[in-house]
Amino acid sequence: MNRTGLLAALAVGIGVGAVFGIFPELDLRLARLFFDGQGGAFAFGHGAGARLLRDAAMWIVAASAAPAVIAIVLKFLLPERRMLIPGRAAVFLLATLALAPGLVTNGILKDQWPRSRPIDVAEFGGKEHFSAWWDPHGGCGQNCSFVSGEASGAYWMFAPAALAPAPVRPYAFAAAAVFGTAVGVKRMAFGGHFASDVLFAGVFTFLVIWLVHALIYRWPFTRLSDETVEAVIARAAAPVHRHVRALLRRVAGGERA
């Protein structure tokens, strides 16, 4: 997660913005690749296989975040024990998951940027009008198309890739990019998102991850240590443990009485 990665993400974002801004019909052309004109629907959006693919991608992301959740919960319950994974890694993984797919994508963009989904626009049998990615006058009310939430969640795999050992880190980043793009293409095939929704999901998610990584690991004025993180969690757990011990003493005293 160095300056080169930041410049590459910004270059991709500028390029995607320019291409799909100047030629917004490109989004329609790419969406039409998955549209069954005779059947009048996005054929890939139905059936048990489609649901299985969606569930599998979500479980992969959840499994990647699970060690961080378990480590923090166990540290909260057993503050005297060392964390299962380094404290900074646990905070980094959960913070980026909450901020990128959570706050930026689902909390802000999808409800505030009213771009209609492909399945809802008139070009594919819907009732709403198509708008370019930059146009804030779409017809969607909430849970809109820009950007793709599932693709953002899949691109979050850039976060565990950033923690991989240096020799394999480039391959981990490549795998995360492929995974995120595959999930995004799957959402396009279901008629849920345009190509620019997917690509911007990757750009925004990477930028959030890059910023949080810099705050926790690189910038000297905000950089944390694993010991500091563990100490903060232990201090936060202390009042809970005092209340639990007091409750147990009262219960034990009542039983003796």
Largest sheet: 2 strands, antiparallel
| Helical fraction | 55-70%
Q: Name the CATH class.
A: Mainly Alpha
- By DSSP, the count of extended strands is 2
Low-confidence stretches: none
- Content of β-strand: under 5%
Question: How big is the Rg?
Answer: 22 Å
Number of helices, counting only DSSP H or I runs of 4 residues or more: 9
Please state how the strands of the largest beta sheet are arranged side by side: 1-2
> Which second-level CATH architecture applies?
Up-down Bundle
Order of helices and strands: HHEEHHHHHHH
Structural class: mainly alpha
Shape: elongated
Query: How far from one another are the termini?
Result: 61 Å
Mean pLDDT equals 92
Q: Determine the CATH topology.
A: Vanadium-containing Chloroperoxidase, domain 1
